[in-house]
Write a structure and sequence with these properties.
- With 350 residues, this protein is mainly alpha-helical.
- It has one domain: Glycosyltransferase, CATH 1.50.10.20.
- 54% of the residues lie in helices and 0% in strands.
- It is built from 14 helices and no strands.
- The chain is globular and about 50 Å long.
- It starts with a helix and ends in a 12-residue tail after the last helix.
């Protein structure tokens, strides 16, 4: 089981080298090493966390619309945002608020004896990820036991719902189809659970690698939404696909390197621009660059950091009222991305 010492690691220092063209001439970097968390970014994170507290509901949850929409997924993201800056339930400045959020999530788990959390596998994946990273961090040992039980059941749901092709789709059905977007959200959680000590068969991981190969576009190296249906390559699927390929043991393969090359070829446009999946894309893209190495991260992070700071609203939210979950979705995503240098959450460490 993890403990606070393994969570609260020091900020890593990176060496900085050049990207291959054309990104080399477009992304900022420093010859003295990778950027650490700037004072401006730290203020933006704190402002974002303060905003999240203003939209937390009395029962401890967060949601997308004030009426309980996707509350399991949004609450899980909010908890992860606070943890990304070493705020944990029951401890410190936000201990009480986070404790209420954690207890709300555990209540949802207790009410679902089948282990399925939320309404779609995206939510289930986010909840499984949050439970995994919360395990060992609760102040009350009974809560920690509850987290373990909920996590084990949540992982069982993921394992039994993997499709023959290796991926997952919207519902926990082994015959429900598969897509890259859902697969990357679910496997991200599975990798975190395995890192925390939950058993995940090697066969499951091998099937994910098989799925990714089937979803990769040989012409660009990017990943498509589905292998046999929507074959359009997207930045979101490419970023998430590259990251879970790394987590699945494919770090130095041509499949992963090709995806990273394609992702770099889209910059800086996908960073300084926008799009409906902007935050989802960069939530995965920054982690893929962390896993790719010091030089990749050192070139990528400053640009997305500065872009996010410029997008923050006065009240501390990001893109309030826009996107699939409104500011309760975009704000924790932005905070997690900005907090990348901290490395307080094990799955985000290299």
């Amino acid at each position: 089981m993890k403990n606070l010492c393994t969570q609260c690691v020091v900020i890593l220092t990176f060496a900085c080298f050049a990207f291959t063209p054309p990104l080399h001439a477009q992304l900022p970097g420093s010859g003295d090493g990778a950027p650490e968390l700037s004072a401006e970014a730290s203020r933006a994170i704190d402002k974002g966390l303060a905003y999240l507290l203003t939209v937390q509901k009395k029962d401890g949850s967060w949601d997308s619309n004030g009426e309980g929409g996707h509350a399991v997924g949004i609450t899980s993201l909010a908890l992860m945002a606070f943890m990304s800056k070493a705020h944990f339930p029951g401890f410190g400045q936000y201990g009480d608020q986070l404790d209420r959020g954690m207890k709300w999530l555990l209540k949802q788990a207790r009410e679902r004896p089948d282990g399925y959390l939320g309404t779609v596998m995206y939510e289930h994946g986010l909840a499984t990820l949050a439970l995994s990273e919360l395990w060992g961090m609760a102040r009350d040992p009974e809560d920690d036991d509850g987290i373990q039980k909920a996590l084990e059941k949540a992982v069982d749901v993921i394992l039994r719902s993997q499709n023959p092709g290796g991926g997952w789709r919207y519902q926990p059905q082994a015959d429900g189809g598969e897509d890259t977007s859902c697969t990357q959200t679910v496997f991200h959680a599975l990798a975190s659970a395995r890192q925390a000590g939950i058993y995940v068969p090697n066969e499951t991981i091998a099937k994910v690698a098989k799925y990714l190969k089937s979803a990769q576009d040989p012409a660009t190296g990017g990943f498509t939404y589905t292998p046999g249906g929507n074959k359009k390559v997207t930045a979101a699927c490419t970023a998430g696909g590259a990251y879970i390929a790394q987590l699945a043991g494919q770090r130095d393969t041509e499949m992963t390197n090709a995806a990273l090359r394609h992702l770099r070829s889209l910059a800086p446009g996908i960073i300084t621009g926008g799009g409906s999946y902007y935050y989802y894309t960069h939530y995965y893209a920054i982690q893929a660059m962390v896993q790719a190495g010091d030089d990749e991260y050192a070139k990528w992070y400053p640009l997305v950091r500065d872009a996010l700071i410029s997008r923050q609203k006065e009240e501390g939210a990001w893109d309030k009222g826009r996107g699939h979950g409104g500011s309760s979705y975009t704000t924790p995503m932005a905070i997690i991305i900005l907090a990348t240098p901290h490395r307080y959450i094990p799955i985000y460490q290299r």
